[in-house]
Amino acid sequence: MRPTFLAIIAYFALAAVAMGQAWVHGPSTRSQVFGGDLALHQWMIGWAAFCVTHFHNPFVSQWINFPYGSNMLVNTSELAVGVVFAPVTVIFGPVTSLNVVFVCGIALSATSMFLVLRRWVDWIPACFAGGLVFGFTGYQAAESLGHLQLLFVPLVPVIFWIFIRALEGNPDSQEDTGDRNHLKGYQVRLGALLGLVLSIQFFISSEVVASCALVGAITIAALAVLRPRQLLSKKRLWGLGVTLGTAIGVAGALLAYPIFVLFRGPGSISGPAQKVTSLASYRSDLLSTVVPTRNQLLGPTGWKALGTSYLPGSESENSAYIGILLAAFCIFLVVRYRHELLVALGGVMSLIALVLGLGNRLMVDGKVHPSIPLPFSVVYHVPLLNSLISARFSLYMDFFVAIILAIGLEMLRSDFAISIGPRKAGAAAAIICLVALIPAVPAWPLRLRQVDIPRFFTSSLVARIPTGSPVVAYPYPYYPENFAMIYQAASDFRFKLAGGYVIVPDTKGNGYFAPTPSIIGTTLRTFFTEAHPPPPSSAIVLGARQELSKWGVKDVVLVPKGADPIGASRFLSKVAGSRPDNSGGVSLWRLGAGATESLGGIGAGNTASAVTARTG
Q1: Cα distance between residue 582 and residue 595, in whole Å
Q2: Kind and range of the H or E run holding 555
Q3: Which residues contact 504 (CB under 8 A, 6 or more apart)?
Q4: How many other C-beta atoms are found inside a 10 Å radius of the C-beta of residue 473?
Q5: H or E element in which residue 417 lies
Q6: 391, 409, 389, 392: which is closest to 401 by C-alpha?
Q7: Separation of alpha carbons 490 and 444, rounded Å
Q8: What stretches in the chain show pLDDT beneath 70?
Q9: Could you tell me the CA-to-CA distances from 130 to 60, 358, 429, 517 in Å, in that order?
């Protein structure tokens, strides 16, 4: 138990390095990017805690994209993570909570892989190395840049361990003596556990559940090819059927209502979550596994620039890198120990995961070869799977590489022990493994920036907004300037927010990442993105005023950001028919109230000069 405990401590210590600047400067004051996906994750973490403490339905929310709302199950709401870490969020706030969750996601994923490998491997250093591959190499190095629901994958090794146990059958002697009832009980228990784990994973990322199902089906086919006599026996097929049937039944019972909300509830979509043509561009290059990116700490600068260019502007999706040394070592292990079923399976499945990660068209050194179609092109025509992003299948490549490394390393150590003795054999195997892993070290600590939340949202000043009142904010929350979602979460969801960076259905029922279109949202975004745009016409001002009246909005908040906050302030003053109060770093209008009294600090005088003073 002590070595296992030390291994887990080591994983958490290494994961904490990723957010090192947060621990130095304060976890509530530093975050990776103030906006974009991370702002969405901060909002989701806060939303889960708010639902727990205020007994709201977590599956559908009117607190974002008001008054239309949003289906949280269509979105990457990671509800299970948010609920588990709700105490941290309530006590320390969503920024701190997100930093903690990122560390725990990395460390727990590595720990889970380590514990699963311990079921197959006796040598703890080999298991520890496998945990490092799954928790700290290419996939996690990339996803640590902004995709919490994809980073937090400790259940994936558990899912595949249960799956492989079901394929192996009952390890007890009753299977050999033909005790069908005992075998059935064992498979039912495995199925119930698998159904429970899949249900929890659904509330972390339904995308990972879908990709697990696809990879699981391919794993069955691979095992059928590798060991046809064992897998295709009547008893094994019957046992597997019992396990999967039980898992489907348990998961179906637990997820019946959430799945109904997902497909038929308010804000549900009938097509893919995003355009397939857009998703298809997120694919790995054939050289991505061996050419480093900026996500790796070591490597020539030119090579890093080249590897990053394979997915420009998408470093969080450029996740296939494992390094040429680790790739070569794993190929050696697979060839040498191919008689071992799990090593052979790891070799086949890691190659299949690599091919799936290449997407629907082969890309080599940044050049797409449209004449060479790949298997993933079929996936884009399968309902429920057509929202998957091919580059993210590197998760499963890392999983099977971890299996190859751990089992192969133990067997290599045993071979060395025959010629040089057990102690030297362990040292030699460990050194070879260390050399192979060094190129895959992630570029941590991550660069964090100061969190800029106006004091208005974290102080008693926010009480000027009635609890649960709808609010329009500038910057209006679009991607990537969805800062208002962070402000709302920091205020403990004091108000409902118009707009938002969430998936909503379009007129055809397909999903897209943007708030429901509105006059006020489009106009405010113009002020954020364009310096000194033409003043809005009287018709736009009147339309925005009528829109806010229809929505029941009484409060408008401006934070001086973007290209033209002064122009936005003048526009909002025209819409409100009054000048704002200025305090706590924001301007606040109460619609229909006329000129309001000062909140203190900067008076209610010239709005433009007040904004200039805060931005200058």
Answers
A1: 12
A2: strand 555-558
A3: 65, 68, 70, 267, 511, 512, 514, 515, 516
A4: 23
A5: helix 394-420
A6: 409
A7: 27
A8: 1, 169-183, 592-616
A9: 39, 24, 13, 48
What pLDDT is stored for residue 171 in this prediction?
Answer: 56
E-state strands within 14-87: 30-31, 60-61, 70-71
Question: Structure tokens of 210?
Answer: 């879908």
- Measure the CA angle with vertex 291, ends 288 and 295; round to 5°: 85
> Rounded distance, CA 236 to CA 27, Å?
51
Residue 359, token pair as written in the block: 């997407």
Instruction: Calculate the dihedral angle through the C-alpha atoms of 545, 546, 550, 556, rounding to the nearest 10 degrees.
Output: -10
Residue 598: predicted pLDDT: 33
Supply the pLDDT for residue 228.
Answer: 84
Which residues on neighbouring strands pair with residue 449, listed in sequence order?
Answer: 31
For residues 362 and 356, give the distance between their C-alpha atoms in angstroms, rounded to a whole number: 10
The type of residue at 415 is D
How far is residue 316 CA from its own chain's centroid? 10
Which residue in 592, 594, 598, 609 sits closest to 464, CA to CA?
Answer: 598
**374: helix, strand or coil:** coil
Between CA 515 and CA 451 the distance in angstroms is: 24
**pTM to 2 decimal places:** 0.91
> Which pair of tokens denotes residue 46?
């806060």
Q: How far apart are CA 453 and CA 518, in angstroms?
A: 26
| pLDDT at residue 568, as a whole number | 96
Closest CA to 529 of 480, 571, 575: 480
Distances (CA, A) of 366 to 350, 355, 487: 22, 16, 40
Helix count and strand count (H, E) for the chain: 28, 13
b/e 50-81 (16+ beta carbons within 10 angstroms → b): bbbeeebebbbbbbbbbebbbbbbbbbbbbbb
CA distance 80 to 86: 10
Inter-residue contact 101 to 151 (CB < 8 Å):
no
174/69 Cα distance (integer angstroms)? 55
Tell me the two tokens of residue 61: 């929310």
From 149, 273, 165, select the one nearest 219 (Cα to Cα): 165
CA distance 563 to 320: 37
Structure tokens at 44: 């989701």
Distance CA 46, CA 488 (A): 9
Q: Which tokens belong to 252? A: 């179906």
Distance CA 573, CA 295 (A): 46
**CA-based end-to-end distance of the chain:** 59
| Residue of 497, 474, 477, 500 lying closest to 567 (CA atoms) | 474
pLDDT of residue 383: 82
Distance, in Å, from the CA atom of 40 to the CA atom of 27, rounded to the nearest integer, reads 18
Query: What pLDDT is attached to residue 180?
Result: 57
